[in-house]
Each structure stands twice: as structure tokens, then as C-alpha cells.
Amino acid sequence: MNENSQQFRLLLTLKLRQLHNGGLEGISYDDLYRMFTTHIWKNQKPTRLSDLADQVLNIKDEDIIRWLVVESKIQGYKSTLDDFKALLDTEEL
């Protein structure tokens, strides 16, 4: 199953709406896309549409949040203070 397929994009959109309706508005389509393509399916992508739908629609909110937390920590470790300078310059103190 191609991760750029129309079915995959539709399933991610449905899952995203489900998350937003549950109060998790901070999660983006790109977050879900990255999670599935780089983490969930790192070693093996589903070959059937039914498996793809099952994995996307039945992943727990907690698992998504856990992945986002780990991902943000990794990005934080890779960043330097200069990476945050623009944010600090525009922040009103």
C-alpha cells in the first residue's frame, strides 16, 4: 500500500477529525503522516487496505501523544539555542 494513496490520505484525515473532536486539536495531518511512515511502518507497511484502515483508525490517542512527546524531545536535543533565537526575539517580555 502506497503511503501517498488517496485511501491513506482519507484515513489520516478521518483519524485527524476524530482526534480533534476528542479535544486534541494540536495534532496535525503531517504529525500523523510522519508517525505512520517513519515509526509505525518503519519495517513493514501494510499490504492490504483493510490492514491499513485497521492500523490508522484503531491506534490509541495515548500512543500518538507518546510518539509526539518522544519526537519533540529528539528534535529538542538536536536543536541549539540559536534555533530558538527568532522565537525569543519576537516574544514580548
Order of helices and strands: HHHHH
The rounded distance between the terminal residues' Cα atoms is 49 Å
Radius of gyration: 16 Å
For the residues shown, what is the average pLDDT? Answer: 88
Apparent shape: elongated
* Class from secondary-structure proportions: mainly alpha
The low-confidence runs, each spanning 5 or more residues with pLDDT under 50, are: none
What is the β-strand count? 0
Strand content range: under 5%
Helix run count: 5
Count of discrete structural domains:
1
The share of residues in helices is 55-70%
Major sheet attributes: none
Describe the structure.
This protein has 93 residues and is an all-alpha fold. It has one domain. Helices cover 67% and strands 0% of the residues. Helix 1 packs parallel to helix 3.
